[in-house]
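SAMPLE LOG
Freezer: B-3
Tube label: C17
Construct: single chain, 137 aa
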Amino acid sequence: ETLVKRVVAVAGDRVLIHDNTVWVNGAALPRHPVAEACEVQIGSRDRVPCRRYRERNEEQSYRVQQIAGQRPSSSQEVSVPPGHFFAMGDNRDDSGDSRFFGPVPYARLRGRALLIHWSWESGEGLRASRLGRLIHQ
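STRUCTURE (predicted):
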């Protein structure tokens, strides 16, 4: 199975998710709300409102989203072991990532995602406007 996730921490880093904020080595990753309408469908449930944020991790800035009204997530601090990285999805409330399967060995890393090849949303279908869009804009 191939997953597309963000590397948020590398070997030797400490990661903590508290009140929906990602902390790496004791510092919160800065994030700011993005003013745009947002709705997502989780599994077979109805569409629910979400909030989008612009998050910065060192030189990278990217958009993440969280389900509005969702209880803030919290976790125990994780130390990323040698030869591993900690990966998270951008859809923070509906993403199987290192919070669930743990740090990922570097040997499993395939490369950097450059563009959106396919975009599909349950109940909506093909999202053609996203096809071919660069990921790091």
